[in-house]
DNA sequence: TTAGGGTTAG
């Protein structure tokens, strides 16, 4: 925290305070910035002015404060700071995250001389997020000097729209028709797309092989994408090896590894890794706790799970979300502690969803506890019936039958009939030669 | 010293 003293701070000191997180909240950032502007002299180097404005925008954007950003935009216009590409790209990015139409308006007002590669890339990224793919592609085609960021942005756009074949064709065109050197970010983009499309493990190994061949280190995002890819491909051994090789492991690397271990039922290893992470003073986030709690659920470690949940709230001041409550309900329910599970649901700060009710009611069926089941059923029915929760309705039917409540069975059957929803038969398939989503045409 | 990309519950 930056403290104001009787000492008259120089512009450099104020800039360092802004940059060093001395202004985590928007109001203190704007206060520091106004102090900075008061001290700024014509003799100061011009880069001080735009740097201060750039770092002031960060907390405003992090707080998603559109009114403050608009207010700051006014100041930037009046002080002619928007002529700096650094400011233009920062402001454009802030708007594109919070209000894409405002970003597009701003872009039209940026003079062509200011529209450098950074500005164009932010605009492309904004179009990729908020407009149709063809508009983004048209904008991409018009960019004169495309760099790796530009190509990566467009590549991610294809994948995020589910256009796998076009994305792979696009990647091929990067490698075969340009001199662009593929980097770790582009490989991470490619790998993430393969992981979500289930094109593993050969693709994961191929991309990893490419990274090794071209000496691209598994740093940051590529490290996470590899860990996640290998764990989802069932290769915990490779994931562990990559994890060990990541130079500066951050919370996301640890989380990907912990979640990967938990999903493969290496529960004790996941719990150990989580504890090691805390010992090394790496701050866990909400997702890390989901992984750690899931390991406790799988292993039936009720006490440990309870401790982790308490640790999350008390020590790390994290607000539990639906995933954490879901784990806690499951933790107690699977151990037969149905009262505790139901208590979690009653005290939740978010509405329970179909997963939570299914978790509780499945345990009610297993442990033949009709009392809690009846209470739960009443509330679960409030979710309403849809194609997504027919499983829950079937479970409720079973529970009514178990309690001899045939009127309930008839009621649910009638509801399902009225809404024309039926439980689908279990079905699973494996594509062997041609993975799904690879059938569309290559881009022009 | 302004741009792209990564991790969660039945």
TrEMBL record:
One function term, GO molecular function aspect: RNA binding
Keyword Transit peptide (UniProt): yes
PPR repeats (start-end): 116-150, 250-284, 321-351
Pfam families: E_motif (PF20431), PPR (PF01535), PPR_2 (PF13041)
InterPro entries: E_motif, PPR_At4g14850-like_plant, PPR_rpt, TPR-like_helical_dom_sf
Gene3D superfamilies in the cross-refs: Tetratricopeptide repeat domain
UniProt record, GO biological process: RNA modification
UniProt keyword annotations, A-Z: Repeat, Transit peptide
NCBIfam families: PPR
Protein name per its UniProtKB record: Pentacotripeptide-repeat region of PRORP domain-containing protein
Native organism: Setaria viridis
Lineage: Eukaryota, Viridiplantae, Streptophyta, Embryophyta, Tracheophyta
């Amino acid at each position: 925290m930056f403290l104001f003293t009787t000492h008259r701070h120089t512009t450099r000191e104020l800039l360092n305070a802004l940059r060093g997180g001395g202004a985590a909240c928007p109001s203190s950032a704007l206060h520091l910035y106004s102090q900075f502007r008061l001290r700024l002299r014509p003799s100061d180097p011009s880069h001080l002015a735009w740097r201060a404005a750039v770092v002031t925008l960060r907390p405003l954007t992090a707080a998603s404060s559109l009114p403050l950003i608009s207010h700051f935009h006014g100041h930037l216009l009046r002080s002619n700071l928007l002529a700096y590409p650094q400011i233009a790209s920062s402001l454009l990015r802030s708007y594109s995250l919070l209000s894409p139409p405002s970003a597009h308006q701003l872009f039209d007002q940026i003079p062509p001389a200011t529209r450098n590669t950074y500005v164009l890339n932010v605009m492309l990224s904004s179009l990729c997020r908020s407009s149709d793919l063809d508009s983004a592609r048209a904008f991409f085609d018009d960019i004169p000097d495309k760099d790796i960021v530009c190509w990566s942005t467009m590549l991610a756009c294809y994948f995020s729209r589910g256009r796998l074949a076009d994305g792979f064709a696009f990647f091929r065109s990067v490698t075969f028709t340009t001199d662009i050197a593929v980097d770790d970010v582009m490989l991470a983009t490619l790998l993430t797309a393969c992981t979500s499309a289930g094109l593993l493990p050969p693709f994961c190994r191929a991309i990893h092989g490419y990274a090794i061949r071209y000496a691209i280190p598994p740093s940051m995002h590529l490290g996470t994408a590899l860990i996640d890819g290998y764990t989802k491909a069932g290769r915990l051994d490779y994931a562990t090896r990559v994890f060990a090789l990541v130079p500066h492991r951050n919370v996301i690397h640890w989380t990907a590894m912990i979640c990967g271990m938990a999903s493969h039922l290496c529960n004790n290893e996941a719990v150990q890794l989580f504890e090691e992470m805390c010992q090394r003073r790496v701050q866990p986030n909400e997702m890390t706790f989901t992984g750690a709690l899931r390991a406790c659920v799988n292993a039936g470690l009720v006490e440990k799970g309870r401790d982790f949940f308490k640790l999350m709230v008390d020590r790390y001041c994290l607000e539990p979300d639906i995933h954490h409550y879901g784990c806690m309900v499951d933790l107690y329910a699977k151990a037969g502690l149905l009262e505790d599970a139901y208590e979690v649901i009653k005290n939740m700060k978010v509405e329970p969803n179909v997963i939570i009710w299914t978790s509780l009611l499945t345990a009610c069926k297993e442990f033949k506890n009709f009392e809690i089941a009846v209470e739960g059923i009443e509330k679960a029915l409030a979710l309403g019936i849809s194609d997504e929760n027919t499983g829950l309705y079937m479970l409720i039917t079973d529970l009514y039958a178990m309690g001899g409540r045939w009127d309930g069975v008839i009621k649910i059957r009638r509801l399902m009939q009225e809404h024309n929803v039926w439980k689908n038969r279990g079905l699973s398939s494996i594509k062997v030669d041609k993975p799904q989503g690879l059938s569309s045409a290559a881009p022009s």
